[in-house]
Amino acid sequence: MLNMFNLEGKVAIVTGCNTGLGQGMALALVKAGAKVVGVNRSNPDETAALIKEANGEFVNVMADVADSNTPNCVLSEAINQFGRVDILINNAGIIRRNDAIDFTEKDWDEVMDVNLKSVFFLSQAFAKQVIKQGSYGNIVNIASMLSYQGGIRVPSYTASKSGILGLTRLLANEWAKDGINVNAIAPGYMATNNTEALRNDESRSAEILGRIPAGRWGEADDVAGPVVFLSSDASRYVNGYTLAVDGGWLAR
Ligand code: NAP
C-alpha cells in the first residue's frame, strides 16, 4: 500500500522553495524519494542544505517565475540534469495589501503575473514535456482560503487565488486524458513570511487564531503529507480538486 506514495525515480519542479511552504514541500518530496528542481529568485542555500542532509538530490534554477522565458529555462534545465519531469508544484506567490479604493495597477499586475499567469505557462510547458515522455504527471497548485472567501484589502491576491481554483479544474479537464492529474492545496493560515504582517497585528492575529478549530497557525510540515499524496500514484483518480489544509478554518 505505501508503495503508492513512493516517489523514487520521479523528478519534481518546486517554485519558490527557498523558504516557507515551498521549502517544506520540496523536503517532503525528497523524503518520499523524488529529485527536486527548485525555481527561485532568492538563494535557496538553506533548502539545498536540508535536502543534502536528507540524502536527496536538488538543483536550482535562479529565475523570476513572472519572466516569460522561465518555463522554457526550467524545463530544459530539468531535462539536462535529470532527464525527465513528473511533478510540478506551483508554489511561488506574493501578496499586496491595500484598501480596494486605493489599490494600484502595479499591485494588481505583479500579483496576477506571479500567482496566476506564471502558473498557467509553467504548467503548459510541463504538460508538453510529460506528453512527450508518454508518462504520468502530477501538478499541484497552491491556492488559499481566498480561493473560497473574499478576504479584505487583498484584491489581486483574492482574484489570483480564486483563479487558481478555476484554472486547476480547467487544466484537470483537459489533461486527465493525457495522464496528468491537476489538483491544488489551499493552505489555511500558515506561519510563513506571507503572513508576517497579519501575525504582527495583535488584534487580527487573535481573531484568526480564535477561528481555527485546530487552535494554532499551520506550519510548513502540515502540507508535507497532502503534497506527497497529490504528487503520487495514490491520487491517480483525483482530478481538479482543491484540498483545504486549514486546521478546520473552512468548516467553521
Ligand atoms: P513565503 O514564505 O513568502 O514564500 C513565497 C515563495 O515564493 C518564496 O520562495 C518567494 O521567494 C517565492 N516567490 C515570490 N515571487 C516570486 C517570483 N517572482 N519568482 C520566483 N519566486 C518567487 O510564503 P508562503 O506562505 O510559503 O507561500 C507559499 C505559497 O502558499 C504562496 O503561493 C502563498 O500565496 C500560498 N499560501 C500561503 C498561506 C499562508 O498562510 N502562509 C496561505 C495560503 C496560501 P522570495 O523569498 O524571494 O520572496
TrEMBL record:
<dbReference type="GO" id="GO:0051287">
    <property type="term" value="F:NAD binding"/>
</dbReference>
<dbReference type="GO" id="GO:0008678">
    <property type="term" value="F:2-deoxy-D-gluconate 3-dehydrogenase activity"/>
</dbReference>
<keyword id="KW-0520">NAD</keyword>
<dbReference type="InterPro" id="IPR011286">
    <property type="entry name" value="2-deoxy-D-gluc_3_DH"/>
</dbReference>
<dbReference type="GO" id="GO:0047001">
    <property type="term" value="F:2-dehydro-3-deoxy-D-gluconate 5-dehydrogenase activity"/>
</dbReference>
<protein>
    <recommendedName>
        <fullName>2-dehydro-3-deoxy-D-gluconate 5-dehydrogenase</fullName>
        <ecNumber>1.1.1.127</ecNumber>
    </recommendedName>
</protein>
<comment type="similarity">
    <text>Belongs to the short-chain dehydrogenases/reductases (SDR) family.</text>
</comment>
<keyword id="KW-0560">Oxidoreductase</keyword>
<dbReference type="InterPro" id="IPR020904">
    <property type="entry name" value="Sc_DH/Rdtase_CS"/>
</dbReference>
<dbReference type="Pfam" id="PF13561">
    <property type="entry name" value="adh_short_C2"/>
</dbReference>
<dbReference type="InterPro" id="IPR002347">
    <property type="entry name" value="SDR_fam"/>
</dbReference>
<dbReference type="InterPro" id="IPR036291">
    <property type="entry name" value="NAD(P)-bd_dom_sf"/>
</dbReference>
